[in-house]
């Protein structure tokens, strides 16, 4: 399934995501930042995971956060957290997305999350 974010907010924003990846230990991977201008969208991931997590922050200070804590970095990043290795980023609370994948995951299916005020 293709995962997209649509910016329907009045200002540009940046999105970070986290998702289950069993090749990581612990099995979570974090990626970011996608810059999305108002009215535009960004493809962020192809996945068969039903759940993933996101944090978004607009250039005017608005943000979309939740209660699931994941690590992010200031610049563009893509990593698996490694226990015992120093980390220079931040921990943010992300929102959970349930994209509704059932028993079969088709690569041509898509899910778009609309970010609005």
Structure explained in plain terms:
This protein is mostly beta strands. The chain has one domain (2-115). The chain is built from no helices and 10 strands. The two termini are 26 Å apart.
Given helix and strand content, the structural type is: mainly beta
Number of domains: 1
Element order: H for helix, E for strand: EEEEEEEEEE
Instruction: Give the overall shape.
Output: globular
List the helices and strands and how they pair.
Elements: E1 2-7, E2 13-20, E3 28-36, E4 41-46, E5 51-58, E6 63-64, E7 68-72, E8 77-79, E9 90-98, E10 110-115
Parallel strand pairs: 1-10
Antiparallel strand pairs: 1-4, 2-3, 2-5, 3-8, 5-6, 5-9, 7-9
Can you give keywords for this protein?
three-stranded mixed sheet; 53% strand; 117 residues; mainly beta; seven-stranded antiparallel sheet
């Amino acid at each position: 399934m293709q995962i997209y974010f649509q910016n329907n907010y009045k200002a540009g924003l940046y999105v970070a995501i986290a998702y289950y990846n069993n090749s990581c230990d612990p099995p979570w991977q974090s990626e970011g930042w996608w810059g999305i201008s108002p009215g535009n969208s960004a493809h962020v991931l192809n996945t068969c995971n039903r759940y993933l997590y996101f944090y978004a922050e607009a250039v005017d200070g608005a943000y979309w956060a939740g209660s699931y804590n994941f690590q992010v970095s200031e610049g563009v990043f893509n990593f698996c957290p490694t226990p015992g290795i120093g980390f220079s980023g931040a921990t943010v609370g992300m929102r959970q997305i349930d994209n509704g994948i059932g028993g079969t995951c088709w690569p041509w299916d898509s899910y778009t999350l609309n970010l609005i005020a």
